[in-house]
Design a protein that fits this description.
With 246 residues, the chain is α/β, with parallel strands linked by helices. It is built from seven helices and eight strands, in the order βββαβααβαβαβαβα. It has a single domain, classed as 3-Layer(aba) Sandwich (Rossmann fold), CATH 3.40.50.1820. Helices cover 34% and strands 21% of the residues. Strands 1-2-4-3-5-6-7-8 form an eight-stranded mixed sheet, sandwiched between helices.
């Protein structure tokens, strides 16, 4: 691990919903949970999280895969993908089922909110975790959910538009959106991993879904806020957290 990538971050752990995972924490103010993409907490993810801290938030990054601080490589991506596919806390192939890791993240959000206060908690998921913040909307405490290139469940056909939630959780999310909880989504327009999920989100959430769809500059464009970073999109996410939490 590069020593300077996570400088100033306090390593800890959190236990909830039957799981214990390491966490990295920094900052003060209302809580925002930054959930990394594959392969893990990379330098680019840490850079984004530091920017959230600088906007006046207590940021927690759960360590769900990989080696925190390690740079992206093809081998590292493959290793983390395999780990995700076999881990019991992730539901990577199933339709209409909420991944168990979301229960852990909901517990983490509730614990953070009880500690630091504020109007609620924000969360952002990316890639395999892109839809996670949507599942966290089941709880009233989640008031600033952000979905960046949501890519699960994987598959073809109907799977490409599936939100990866149980019917009960999906109905609750729709209710909260109808009551005014907005959801911010980001993607590159030609990113096949996202499938048709933005169409599903528009249909089910209506005007509560705020979509940012960027022109793809290359076939590899995927990670809007990190590896293929778009600076205006980063600013829009930071502003969204400020609007909802400060």
């Amino acid at each position: 691990m590069s020593a300077d990538v996570l400088a100033g971050w306090e390593r800890g752990s959190f236990t909830g919903a039957g799981f214990t995972r390491d966490t990295y924490r920094r900052g003060s103010g209302p809580a925002v949970i930054v959930i990394h993409e594959i392969p893990g907490i990379t330098p680019a993810v840490a850079r984004f999280a530091n920017e959230v801290v600088d906007r006046g938030f207590t940021v927690v990054m759960p360590d769900l895969l990989g080696s925190p601080g390690k740079e992206v490589s093809g081998l590292y991506l493959a290793q983390s993908s395999l780990k995700m596919c076999i881990a019991k806390e992730f539901t990577t192939w199933a339709l209409d089922r909420t991944s168990p890791i979301i229960a852990w993240l909901r517990a983490l959000a509730a614990d953070l909110h009880a500690e630091v206060g504020g109007p609620g908690v924000g969360a952002i998921g990316m890639c395999f975790s892109g839809g996670v913040a949507l599942g966290m909307m089941v709880d009233e405490v989640m008031v600033a959910p952000v979905l960046s290139q949501p890519s699960l469940p994987v598959g073809r056909g109907a799977t490409r538009g599936n939100l990866g939630l149980s019917p009960a959780d999906e109905e609750r999310v729709i209710e909260r959106a109808a009551a005014g909880c907005q959801v911010l989504g980001l993607r590159f327009a030609d990113d096949g991993f996202v499938g048709t999920r933005f169409d599903t989100l528009r249909r089910k959430l209506g005007d509560a879904f705020i979509a940012i769809e960027l022109p793809s500059r290359s076939k590899s464009d995927h990670s809007v806020l990190t590896e293929q970073r778009d600076d205006p999109s980063v600013e829009r996410v930071l502003d969204f957290f400020v609007e909802k939490l400060h």
